[in-house]
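Record 1 of the preview.
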Amino acid sequence: MNTNSFIAHLLGALTLAAVSCTPATVTHTLVEVEAPFPMEPIGVPVFPDRDFPVTDFGAAAEPDTDNTAAFAAAIEACNRAGGGRVVVPAGEWNSGPIHLRSNVNLHLEQGAVIRFTDDPEAYLPAVMTSWEGMECYNYSPLVYAFDCDNIAITGQGTLSPRMETWRVWFARPQAHLEALRRLYTMASTDVPVEERQMAQGENHLRPHLIHFNRCRNVLLEDFAIRESPFWTIHLYLCDQGVVRGLDVRAHGHNNDGVDLEMSRNFLVENCTFDQGDDAVVIKSGRNRDAWRLDTPCENIVVRNCDILEGHTLLGIGSEISGGVRNVYMHDCKAPGSVFRLFFVKTNLRRGGFVENIHMKNVRAGSMLRVMEVATDVLYQWKDLVPTYEERITRIEGLYMSDVACDEADAVYELNGDPSLPVRNVELRNVHVGHVKEFFKRVANTENVVEENVTCDRLGQ
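->
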């Protein structure tokens, strides 16, 4: 098919979709979720029974075919028709960034593999996103949605980016650190977000794999992920959604499994995470950007998930300036090794709050700490940028119960800030087979309740 014929084919398909399909309203099912706090039923989108195969828009599972335009045309047609499924059949499909629109379910049939290019130029122009809690314009995420309603990725297929360029970008040379310094300075001095253009030169701020920004009614279901340039699944300022049945494996730098940031009313269930960083992470922005947005991350339930490898099973922070409340993880397993099972991390620049966080009925292998609270976590930022303003994070109401681990360096270590101690921490029915270094350390913490917290052996 020559270029003119191909363009005519696309325009004809778009016109046909726009005029011959009767738009239908996306409906919702409600998922009731039990939690130790009030939890609204979560609305899950149900899409019209209408399919838009990407092959109808010129896509081809061929090594030399770039399917970016065909995917975009199918998504546009689906959106204009009132919603449905954009279907990716079995095969290996090369693509650049995929931008979802409202009422679109990107459905990956069994055997479908989307192979995203690792050419940074393909992810321009820059889009509004964030980097470690600071808003900016950066390379487009590989799958991106902004201000959309009723969006989904479903099916038995796989998202598998090419990684050669991104692996080079994992390093943090001086040019990258200088870019982080500039972004931090802009965010700390209220430079408008549209002026924070970071997809330039040697900045090398890698894109997210999936980044949904300011979206409502989200469904991520059943597909697999194999590697990621940066954070793997990032749900940012989103309201209402379900993440279920995913098989996620990504062992690169900053490869968190799922990051929920300033989002609310989410269920994460029946997923497997095999990560090079934290597995399930709850965040709420960094410093002045989060204070401006003033949106806590709240009402999050995580259940029946397996963490094969990761730094932290449940991480809270360290981007935490908007506050985190009402998180419940239960009936999860981490049979291998993690650094920490339950980790709250912040520092004197963050402010915000952490309250009412629950972990129950977890089985795990080995780790450094079963529970830890650290209030001085600054990573590379400690010496890279100054402290513009000090705000201490209020931390209270951390609850762990019915947890069994094979071994740990320590059961728990709680280090609050002397000016605002951590309050109301409960550990009940926690058992560790072998505690190798020390049982517990507690500083600047009030009202720690320990009930039936035991080990079989203490020391080497």
